[in-house]
Amino acid sequence: MYLFAVNRGNSTIKVTDDDGNQIGRIYPNEVCTRWGGEEYYLVNFLASDGQIKNGTTVTDPNFNNLKYFTDGSGYNVSGAPAPYVYKMRRTMNVYRADGSYWGRVAGGMYIATDEPCCGDTHRDWMQVNYVQSTRGDWVKVEGAGYGHGFVDTGLGSASGYNSWAIDANV
Question: Is residue 109 scored above 70 in pLDDT?
Answer without folding.
Answer: yes
